[in-house]
Design goal:
By secondary structure, the protein is α/β, with parallel strands linked by helices. It is built from 12 helices and 12 strands. Strand 10, helix 11 and strand 11 form a beta-alpha-beta unit. Helix 2 packs across helix 5, helix 5 packs parallel to helix 12 and helix 10 runs parallel beside helix 11.
């Protein structure tokens, strides 16, 4: 043991007196490696932080751009400018150089962003690594309902009574077309988004294509000038039971031209056809709001399938409660009810307001979401109360005081229906 102790002591003495420089070199090299590891960890942490922040910035940018595209329709330049501004404001401050691009893809239904950035690495530069590359890529899909596995069916009850003449009707046309631009997406191959129109005044005009099937009466007059209907007089006055023996819709039998001038339009994805029909609306007649409410429901009802072309058939109510692959509802059925005044026209049964409220209650019981929009109606008045009662809840009701607010209401409804989604 003593020999070993002496040997160890001698080694320590020789080590402490060594002046060859090998120890200093070894210590220096070891120190560089240690500092390199610590510094590299700091640099890598900065790059991970930058990547995370840039991804969040790109997410915000493409979602903001998607909102612009939903509202403006075709203004892709504005959408890309919005994305670039959002990204510049929120990207990582660690970034020393940055190449970012935004492009509209998938036939105008999505916006994709790609970022190739570099983050300075002062510690790793000792080892010759001056920068760390940070790449990110995201994509926002504009019609999220479809991409999330949700079918959408929207029926718009639009008031085109005499009081809607002039600028009010022009405002309504713009608002309704805004909703169509936002809600109806381009790729309908897997999940569909369709819109139906139920214009009304003192009647609802079902048009020559559907008049016989709905009323069991022969056509008379030219075009759609005498194809209007009134409320049903059977026990199904407030239901969506289909027309049939003993339960047909009552035809308007006057020999004069009926109002409204334009007929209903069954569910369709044809945006051009929907907009053309809206542009043809003219204002005339009194306000039979219960008829518009009923027909907004009929156009969403699977019980009426077979009357319309096959492409316009509504999906079954059961799809409302069914779940898609990500747990979301497989189907949204939505009625948008718009009016500018009191319901003052009816032909049988209770007054128009009472009938409309009963129809709304039964429609909502089937799972249909009901948005209501008043246009320059008196707060606290009968029309205001009816719109509030018909809406799914208070957040589904809008009272627009001017044309700009009306457009904002329809856009807000549309954006709630077709929420943006980041694609995987």
């Amino acid at each position: 043991m003593e020999g070993k102790t002496a040997t160890h002591a001698e080694f320590i003495i020789r080590f402490s007196e060594d002046r060859s420089g090998a120890v200093a070199i070894t210590f220096a090299l070891t120190t560089m490696v240690v500092f390199g590891i610590i510094g590299g960890a700091i640099d890598l942490g900065r790059s991970y932080s930058a990547r995370s922040q840039n991804e969040a910035a790109l997410d915000s940018a493409v979602l903001a751009a998607g909102r612009v595209m939903q509202i403006s329709g075709t203004d892709t330049a504005q959408a890309i400018a919005t994305a670039e501004r959002f990204y510049a404001e929120h990207k990582s401050k660690f970034t020393t150089s940055d190449y970012t691009s935004f492009e509209i893809v998938d036939n105008g239904t999505a916006i994709r962003a790609t970022s190739d950035s570099k983050v300075a690495s002062p510690f790793l530069s000792i080892l010759g690594i001056g920068e760390i590359e940070v790449k990110t890529k995201v994509k926002a899909v504009l019609a999220a309902g479809g991409n999330a596995g949700t079918h959408i069916e929207v029926s718009m009850m639009l008031d085109i009574t005499g009081s809607m003449g002039g600028s009010k009707l022009s405002d309504l046309k713009l608002a309704a077309k805004d909703l169509i631009d936002i809600v109806v997406w381009a790729d309908q191959s897997e999940y569909t988004s369709r819109v139906a129109l139920a214009p009304f005044s003192e009647h609802v005009n079902v048009g020559r294509d559907f008049f016989r099937a709905v009323t069991n009466r022969s056509l008379s007059g030219s075009g759609n000038s005498r194809t209007c209907v009134r409320e049903r007089t059977t026990s199904d006055r407030y239901t969506d039971a289909p027309p049939g023996s003993g339960n047909y819709v009552t035809a308007w039998t006057s020999t004069s031209t009926c109002a409204p001038n334009q007929p209903i339009m069954a569910l369709t994805k044809d945006k051009a056809a929907l907009k053309s029909r809206i542009d043809s609306f003219g204002a005339s007649g009194n306000t039979a709001g219960h008829l518009g409410t009923a027909w907004a429901w009929y156009l969403l009802s699977p019980h009426w399938n077979g009357l319309w072309p096959a492409a316009s058939d509504a999906r079954p109510y059961g799809d409302i409660t069914a779940k898609g692959e990500h747990g979301q509802p497989l189907l949204q059925k939505i009625a948008v009810l718009m009016t500018d005044g009191e319901y003052n026209q009816y032909y049988s049964g209770s007054d128009s307001t009472t009938q409309a409220r009963a129809i709304c209650a039964n429609m909502k019981a089937q799972g249909i979401l009901v948005y209501t929009v008043g246009f320059k109606i008196t707060a606290g008045g009968q029309a205001d109360t009816t719109m509030k009662q018909c809406a799914t809840d208070s957040t589904y009701y809008y009272n627009a005081g001017d044309g700009g607010t009306l457009r904002m209401a329809f856009r807000d409804i549309a954006l709630k229906i077709a929420t943006l989604r980041l694609a995987e």
